[in-house]
Amino acid sequence: MAESIKDKVAIIGMGCTKFGELWDKSATDLMVDAAYEAYEDAGIDPKDIGAAWVGNWQEVTGMAGLGLSGPLKLQYKPVTRVENMCATGTDALRNAAYAVAAGIYDIALAVGAEKLKDMGFAGLVSSAPGGTTGTGGVSTTAPGVFAMLATRYFDRYNLSPQEGKRMLAHISVKSHHNGALHPKAHFRREITIEEVMNAPIIAWPLGLLDCCGVSDGGAAAIVVRAADAKKFRPDPVYIKAIQMCVGPVEGQMRTDYDFTHVEETYRAGIAAYAEAGVKNPRKEIGMAEVHDCFSITEAIIMEDLQFSRRGKVREDIEGGFFDLHGGLPVQPDGGLKCFGHPVGASGLRMIYETYKQLQGKAGPRQIKNPKLGLTHNMGGPPPGCTVAVAILGL
Questions:
Q1: C-alpha to C-alpha distance for 263 and 304, rounded to whole angstroms
Q2: Helix or strand holding residue 93 (H, E)
Q3: Are 378 and 341 spatial neighbours (Cβ–Cβ below 8 Å)?
């Protein structure tokens, strides 16, 4: 019978670079900086690592594990490069955690890093799935596809354009408030509802301040078996669940796809809750870091993860339920909105914030008694994507 990862693996050290336009840093620098902060946090030496996984989307570390083993001087250790769209960083941790849980390695390292600014990447790229079905190859952009979620959501739940845009603006304002408190965030300026609603349109109704930025950054985690965790530190953070759901890419071919939910997020959430033993996500999850590539994405994730009832997320958003000191704080570090989205690093950056919050070490962003923390990554367009959901706790 298949077993659960719940409470079998603990994170004993994490590191995270500042995110931003890091012109003076290479991808190698970011991996080294994140890994050495994690080493120091865990109180171990690099030689203690038994195996490592490196998450990277655009191959700036090369096609293989050599991109990590060289910079970190992992002498003849097994190193594997992982790429799984926007779930890449979480998948690197997932691989490391499973290897430790299986008893193959005592200590494993997961690192995610990305240098998008050097590539001139602006976020306006084709997001249509390919394959052999004949449905791929359409020229679309990420803002264009996600804007379809917003227009359909407004229509289905009878929101006027003004009401819908104001709901989305609350999300961005909340995230920027939190990001302004984080020294490692790329964007650290608070914004107003009016600024969001009046920002230049990228793909209606999404304006410039509804979209996450493009950044460079890196993050790292060190994991051991749960039974050994307190040999390293008094406050390890335990993995309660780590699930992935990869869709069959049917949405664009189905006439009944509603563009108001993402099935992969819903199913990954169900699987993670079952693994962690969570019965009531709205009450039991104490904080969440989710894939807010656009403001509408965060709104729909709240319903897919059962934090809000279908069609009712506006009440929670505008009522402050997801604010830093609300009932369920979301993006306490500012999320993708303030950190940007260096793809290979984002999942581990979310886990870094959750790790610090659970330990009570988040400074001015600290949440009161967060209990369980959830992270969520979504790679690809809503009609067919890859989603990772992790749940962590003490």
A1: 8
A2: helix 88-101
A3: no
| The pairing of beta strand 237-246 with beta strand 216-225 | unpaired
Instruction: Map out the domains of the chain with their CATH numbers.
Output: 9-120+218-231 (3.40.47.10), 142-206+239-393 (3.40.47.10)
The C-alpha atoms of residue 210 and residue 337 are separated, in whole angstroms, by 8
Is-catalytic flag, 86? yes
The least confident of 11-15, 220-224, 250-254 is: 250-254
Cis peptide before 205 (omega within 30 of 0): yes
pLDDT digits (tens, 9 = 90+) for 27-68: 999 999 999 999 999 999 999 999 999 999 876 556 689 889
- The catalytic position among 176, 182, 186, 341 is 341
Exposure b/e, 376-387, CB count within 10 A at least 16 = b = bbbbbbbbbbbb
Beta carbons of 128 and 137 less than 8 angstroms apart: yes
- pTM score, whole prediction: 0.95
CA separation, residue 23 to residues 26, 27, 115, 217 (Å)? 8, 10, 9, 11
When pLDDT is averaged across residues 81-99 and rounded to a whole number, the result is 97
Distance, CA of 33 to chain centre: 20
- The active-site residue, picked from 16, 86, 211, 245, is 86
Which of 344, 16, 297, 308 lies closest to 175 in space, CA to CA?
Answer: 297
Angle CA 143–149–153, to nearest 5: 145
**Element housing 241 (H / E):** strand 237-246
Give the single-character DSSP code of 373.
E
Helix, strand or coil, per DSSP, at residue 244: strand
Spatial CB neighbours of 90, under 8 Å, sequence gap ≥ 6:
242, 244, 347, 348, 350, 351, 375, 377, 388, 390
Question: Nearest 5°: CA angle at 7, between 5 and 11?
Answer: 95
341 is annotated as an active-site residue: yes
Q: Give the burial string for 214-239 (b: 16+ CB within 10 Å, else e).
A: bbbbbbbbbbbbbeebeebbeebbbb
Q: For residues 333 and 352, give the distance between their C-alpha atoms in angstroms, rounded to a whole number.
A: 10
How far is residue 394 CA from its own chain's centroid?
20
